[in-house]
Amino acid sequence: VNDWEKSFWILLLPGFLGLSAHNNLGPEHEKHLHQHVKSEHNSHPGWVPRDMRHFGGPDSYGYVFIDSNEPDGPQFNYINFDGETITNMGDDDYRGPFQLPFDFTFYGETYSQVYINSNGFISFGTGNTQYNNSTIPDQGVPNNIIAFFWDDLNPASGGIIEYGQVENSWVCSFVNVREFGGSGTISAQVILTEDSEILFQYLDFNNGIDINGETIG
């Protein structure tokens, strides 16, 4: 595992929604987004460059992102906790709704429950099994999602998904969850706070997982 794979993490906050993507190797290591088709008929082989600026926004709701390299950016502090473990999560599957320990405001709507999707995102209002990630915003489904590593993952072939309250936050962790059709794994977590802040943290990318094809945001 190289330094890039071990040190990429992300944050999001409301009114001041922050997206932190820390990269020890510097901004010259540009990332990319692409559509991943789960079949032998892959009609989306192209790549779309992703801007690796350290901060940006706001959007129409006042959300911005900020990188950990910025002076006011988030600090990496991965949370190890004994949460509830989701068992028998299948490929392209979801579980929920799960009760949040507080009301959470997201783009002007307040939610008390959340769904966990096997493909690296959580959602409000309804669950979703979409594996074919796209750029966001997107008028198509799924909507009302928080994507910390939206890609075609398959926890049925390995890994643990756990969730629960940690102090004034709700945490969902993917631990060594496998990508579909490969041996690569990701360990990452999304954190919701009672102040309606969002934090993404990335502990490990292992066994050659493709980190160039995910949607984050």
UniProtKB/TrEMBL annotation:
Residues 113-172 form the NIDO domain. GO terms for biological process: cell-matrix adhesion. PANTHER family: MUCIN 4-RELATED, MUCIN-4. This is NIDO domain-containing protein. It comes from marine metagenome. InterPro entries: Epithelial_Barrier/Signaling, NIDO_dom. The keyword Disulfide bond applies. The keyword NADP does not apply. Keywords: Disulfide bond.
